[in-house]
Amino acid sequence: MKTKILMSVLAIGLAIALIGGATMAWFTAEADVTAAEFTAGTVVVSAEELEPKPAPGKFFDNVNPGDCGRVEWTIINEGTKAAELRVKLEEEWEGGLDTDNFFYAPAPGSDWVMYEDEDGIWLYYVGGPVAGTYGLEEGEEPESVKLELVVYFDGELTGNDYQGKWFKLSGIVEAVQASNDAPLEVWGNAWDAVTGESYEPGGDAAEYLGHIQDTKCWDGEVEEPEEPEEPEEPEEPAKYTLQLETQKFWFGQYLDDVMCGTVEGGGSGKEVGKEVTLKATPSIGYSFVGWYTEANGKGKFLGRGERQERTYYYNYINETASDGETVTLYAVFKWGY
Fold this sequence. Notes:
Elements: E1 5-12, E2 15-18, E3 25-39, E4 68-77, E5 83-93, E6 102-106, E7 112-117, E8 120-125, E9 144-153, E10 166-177, H1 182-187, H2 189-194, H3 203-213, E11 239-250, E12 253-256, E13 261-264, E14 267-271, E15 276-282, E16 286-292, E17 301-303, E18 306-308, E19 311-316, E20 326-335
Parallel strand pairs: 1-4, 11-20
Antiparallel strand pairs: 2-3, 3-10, 4-9, 5-8, 5-10, 6-9, 7-8, 11-12, 11-14, 13-15, 15-19, 16-17, 16-20, 18-19
């Protein structure tokens, strides 16, 4: 089963905060986790068409009972101190529906573990500490870690009441300075437990993990989000130079003669495939025969165009010229009318 990954970025900074009941201050920080929102699909038996209404910031816009997927956040330490991290997630179905049908667990191979205490399930990062910005050179990026979760909507527990509803997964990320045993002082036995060599989650954390490990998304293939394609630069159209010559047809001969008429519309920078309007105006006593692709009345006869008073307007399009090529057309005039 292919699933999709939703990504967001979360920045944290360390500040001084007094831990209630403690005798000293530790550097800690807290920030909201950007919400991942889902919308359940619908099963409709009706002759009428139903327009879906996905929630803003949706993750799946057509969730079915039994679906699984992955959601990923990037947590950035923008404070100067190295820090340890933990995350507390909150689950919410639209309309206050029961969230017991939703399960999550850290993706396999990650440095995140789950731990349950009286406040519920916490996610602890045990691959730290996450370095702070102190000592970074200008232009260097602060250190970050990814929190990737496998998520699952239980098929049996997701009934018809959930059709068309949105689901939101949000929460907070907490950071505490990594030095001087601050995590142990602030988080107590939980930190001691999750950093132990043989730690295994218990309670609801173990139940969540068990549900997730039974899904196809635990170690199955996932569909990475597509990188937006860079728009292709439009190719510059080929351009050519249009050179216009005048000739006089005189007693069976073609003579180069600039006095028999005037022509306009030539020049450089003409785009291949684009229309060019040519003007031909015969001098007094002369008439315009038409445009030719070669001198002396040879090549292809293109026509004369539309006459307006004494001037003929012909719309010329060249489809074959190479970039930089010079194309010559010949306007032929004759004595008499």
